[in-house]
Recover the amino acids of this structure.
């Protein structure tokens, strides 16, 4: 079936039927959206939701390919090697883009090897303590950490992850030294906090909100540039005087060097999907915060956050 | 109580029962095919639930979850190809049983143990979920390190005919578990520039290689002329009956497996494979037939299967009580429930009691459906063993290659599978036991992580493992066990 | 005898590897265990096990060399076929490579029933391809020469 279509396509091409140069780019084979995390995770759910919402405006299937491994680095290295023809896209904006390359060597340069298509959502990062903790605010945390350097223990979801980098950036900015204990993911981090095994933890808003509503934890701050609508009373780190702005973002990127017409084609269709009722509805239910940016603006945000993390690690 | 009857009414609707039955079948098949995991089946079903009612989607996802974990044991027993990592412990004794022509018995034991383990953990979930969740929270890195130290010591002491070879296998397992990123620093260890090994040696391809591929290589030694006598069906009926003698033998292993599985299942980050291997080791250590383990002991099958299915119910405990998923499948379930507008967490018992009852009932029913379906399927399934090896094995090898590949679309995973096959073949030719290698491989990584997390939290002071009552308890039991075993060995030698 | 030699070699190799690893990774880092600690423990266990095997291995019944070679030959044959198949998959595509592999392996190992052969060769690759790609949305490799 596929072969037949291809043959027909080739025939048409050779006969000059499709040779009208003014025609804008149209995809002719399935578009692969590569996800660097396993099926069912937050990134995967976002990608699948976006693909479902966008599918109707594409003439070809959008195929989600999970290449899990190394905090998304394996997938990024794979996509960086693919041709810039618009048929291979990568879900970017998280650890693999802004954080891991600053911690260790990876086989790609996020600003040179990739170009953004769009940013679809942002997931803010919340700083949490237990409800019964004697740390009541960011000021308390900084004061206690200065009194006893290295005594306050925080949990992140992995060495080199965005959460780890966020804490390093905050520590660098506030001039404090905290002990880092990496865990395998969000669930383990939350258990370590709830069980009293660590003092501070970082979490995504939906993980945090569930525990805040249950009265088990308190949020000290969010690390974004404005307050999170779901937690209107929680200040940003910038408000309390520390210049840290890091977000976990999710968007699509393609290998760098994409022709302008392909970029326009992909951007316009995915941007439409982000604004569709279907996506808005699902995003709300899965705790995703829709925050559209076009390709160049997405790239600029990634570059800005990578730079901030790079500065903190030096 | 009215909520209970409301939930019961919904659950018993014909359409919902049909969905449950269908998803149990799909789960069994997915679980049985090596490379297709339960996680994947549940994750791929989530988009389907978007257009369904909350009750129907809960039944579909839980049906897939429970039956997927059981399904792995079918191929583990019949083909020595564990369909899921959690059923690797099942094939250690299940496949030898199949080779003796007792596949039917092994399958029956697996079903019985699975269903009892599953129901046991569901009852725990129903009766004492909030209290148990608080206990689970007390298990931080220090306590986990104690538990895993105890488990590793069990493996080291459970040695077969040749303790030196078992020791070598244990060391090799620990060494292989250290491939990949360092759990604390994130720096790569022994990956030689191959990024696909950054998260460690991929477990499913390794498993397929060690078990299924090495088994096929052995069969190829004889050019696929079945060495084992063709199955005599008249005799088979008798040897495959599960009567009181067998039931008595598996009673304790099933019970201990259910308890261990339920306990490990509610601790986030360990999961079904740790629970089944731990339960297998305990059963071997405590069994009066411990020398039969690895050669076809029904206790081995029973303990492993009870434990891995007990995880299904107890992983829901932290999910419902704390909104914290106990393993990767329940993490997917959490997302799916939220999309349905059901928000787990301490409040769910008062805000949506009907959903809680629906989850309980779906879990109970799923286990019953598994029992019925699997019992019906036993005879047709064992017919697979009557296909001549020369036609069966090339097809299975193809499935192994495809199964290793699809999970991450990685050629290195296929290479790992073949390397695992060569390793398994060589080790078995030298009669080095594979069980210690696998158990050490599974347990060493979480142990290292927990130990180093604990030491980071105490800033390098190992005293933390002795001042904490839970970990101190495990350390003392471990020491007593090692000392006792040394004493007993001395007694034997004299 | 073989087990004893193997044990000795194993033991020496483990000790040598144990000498190299600390140069790459630290066993202790400021009093806290580092990346090399567990691997070193594992190598110590392997070295002990190897030494034990060299010291006192259980007596083995060994087959005549000829018989042994014949057996290993069969295993190596299947292994070579499998590896070739996996290597050919990105070039031929999953369906074609699988069909060829099943046909060849069955023939070489003595499966000659024509009906079974045809059914397996055609049905298995297609069923797996559509099963994985169609139902589970998991793509298998496609032929590279058809892509252009």
């Amino acid at each position: 079936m596929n072969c037949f279509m291809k043959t027909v396509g080739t025939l048409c091409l050779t006969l000059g039927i499709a040779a009208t140069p003014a025609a804008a780019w149209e995809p002719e084979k399935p578009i692969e959206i590569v996800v660097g995390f396993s099926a069912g995770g937050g990134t995967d759910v976002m990608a699948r939701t976006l693909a479902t919402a966008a599918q109707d405006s594409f003439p070809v299937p959008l195929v989600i390919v999970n290449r899990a491994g190394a905090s998304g680095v394996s997938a990024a290295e794979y996509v960086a090697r693919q041709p810039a023809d618009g048929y291979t896209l990568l879900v970017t904006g998280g650890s693999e883009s802004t954080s891991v390359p600053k911690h260790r060597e990876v086989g790609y340069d996020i600003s040179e090897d990739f170009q953004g298509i769009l940013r679809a959502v942002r997931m803010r990062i919340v700083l949490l303590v237990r409800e019964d903790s004697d740390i009541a605010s960011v000021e308390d945390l900084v004061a206690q950490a200065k009194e006893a350097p290295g005594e306050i223990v925080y949990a992140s979801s992995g060495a080199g992850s965005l959460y780890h980098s966020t804490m390093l950036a905050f520590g660098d900015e506030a001039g404090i030294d905290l002990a880092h204990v990496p865990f395998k993911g969000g669930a383990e981090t939350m258990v370590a906090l709830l069980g009293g095994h660590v003092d501070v933890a970082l979490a995504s808003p939906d993980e945090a909100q569930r525990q805040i509503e249950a009265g088990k934890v308190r949020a000290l701050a969010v690390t974004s540039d404005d307050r999170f609508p779901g937690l209107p009373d929680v200040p940003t780190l910038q408000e309390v005087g520390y210049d840290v702005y890091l977000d976990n973002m999710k968007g699509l990127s393609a290998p760098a060097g994409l022709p302008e017409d392909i970029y326009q084609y992909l951007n316009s269709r995915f941007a439409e999907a982000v604004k569709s009722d279907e996506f808005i509805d699902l995003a709300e239910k899965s705790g995703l915060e829709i925050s559209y940016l076009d390709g160049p603006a997405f790239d600029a945000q990634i570059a800005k956050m990578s730079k901030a993390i790079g500065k903190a690690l030096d | 109580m009215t909520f209970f009857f409301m939930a019961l009414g919904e659950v018993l609707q014909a359409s919902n029962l049909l969905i449950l039955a269908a998803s149990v079948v799909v789960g069994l098949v997915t679980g049985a095919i090596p490379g297709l995991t339960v996680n994947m089946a549940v994750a791929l079903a989530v988009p389907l639930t978007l257009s369904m009612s909350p009750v129907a989607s809960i039944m579909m996802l839980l049906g897939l979850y429970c039956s997927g974990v059981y399904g792995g044991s079918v191929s583990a027993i019949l083909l020595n190809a564990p369909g899921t990592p959690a059923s690797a412990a099942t094939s250690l004794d299940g496949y030898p049983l199949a080779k003796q022509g007792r596949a039917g018995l092994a399958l029956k034991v697996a079903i019985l143990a699975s269903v009892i383990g599953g129901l046991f953990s569901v009852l725990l979930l129903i009766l004492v979920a909030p209290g148990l969740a608080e206990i689970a929270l007390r298990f931080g890195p220090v306590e986990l390190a104690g538990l895993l130290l105890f488990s590793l010591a069990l493996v080291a002491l459970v040695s077969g005919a040749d303790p030196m070879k078992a020791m070598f296998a244990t060391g090799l397992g620990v060494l292989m578990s250290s491939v990949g990123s360092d759990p604390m620093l994130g720096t790569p260890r022994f990956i030689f520039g191959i990024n696909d090994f950054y998260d460690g040696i991929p477990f499913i391809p390794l498993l397929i290689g060690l078990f299924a591929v090495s088994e096929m290589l052995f069969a190829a030694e004889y050019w696929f002329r079945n060495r084992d006598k063709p199955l005599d069906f008249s005799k088979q009926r008798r040897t495959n009956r599960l009567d009181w003698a067998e039931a008595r033998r598996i009673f304790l292993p099933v019970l201990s497996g259910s308890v261990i599985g339920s306990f490990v299942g509610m601790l986030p980050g360990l999961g079904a494979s740790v629970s089944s291997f731990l339960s297998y080791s305990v059963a071997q250590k405590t069994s009066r037939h411990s020398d039969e383990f690895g050669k076809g002991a029904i206790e081995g099958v029973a303990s492993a299967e009870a434990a891995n299915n007990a995880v299904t119910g107890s992983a829901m405990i932290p999910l419902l009580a704390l909104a914290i998923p106990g393993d990767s499948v329940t993490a997917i379930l959490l997302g799916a429930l939220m999309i349905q507008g059901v928000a787990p967490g301490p409040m769910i018992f008062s805000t949506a009691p009907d959903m809680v009852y629906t989850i309980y009932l779906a879990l109970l029913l799923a286990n019953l459906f598994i029992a019925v379906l699997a019992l019906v399927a036993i005879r047709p399934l064992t017919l697979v063993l009557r296909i001549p090896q020369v036609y069966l094995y090339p097809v299975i090898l193809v499935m192994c290659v495809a199964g290793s590949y699809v999970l991450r679309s990685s050629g290195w995973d296929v290479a790992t599978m073949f390397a695992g096959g060569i390793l398994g073949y060589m080790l078995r030719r030298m009669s080095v036991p594979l069980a210690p290698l696998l158990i050490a491989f599974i347990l060493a990584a979480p142990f290292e992580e927990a130990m180093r997390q604990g030491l980071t939290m105490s800033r390098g002071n190992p005293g933390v493992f002795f001042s904490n009552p839970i970990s101190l308890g495990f350390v003392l039991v471990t020491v007593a066990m090692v000392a006792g075993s040394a004493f007993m060995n001395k007694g034997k030698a004299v | 005898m073989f087990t004893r030699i193997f044990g000795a070699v194993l033991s020496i190799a483990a000790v040598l590897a144990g000498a190299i690893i600390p140069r790459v990774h630290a066993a202790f880092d400021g009093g806290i265990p580092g990346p090399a600690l567990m691997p070193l423990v594992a190598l110590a266990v392997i070295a002990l096990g190897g030494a034990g095997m060299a010291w006192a291995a259980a007596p083995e019944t060994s087959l005549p060399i000829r018989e042994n070679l014949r057996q290993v030959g069969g295993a190596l044959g299947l292994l070579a076929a499998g590896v070739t198949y996996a290597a050919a998959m990105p070039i031929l595509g999953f369906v074609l490579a699988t069909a060829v592999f099943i046909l060849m392996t069955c023939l070489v190992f003595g499966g000659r029933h024509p009906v079974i052969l045809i059914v397996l060769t055609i049905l298995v690759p297609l069923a797996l391809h559509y099963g994985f790609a169609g139902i589970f949305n998991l793509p298998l490799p496609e032929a590279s020469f058809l892509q252009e």
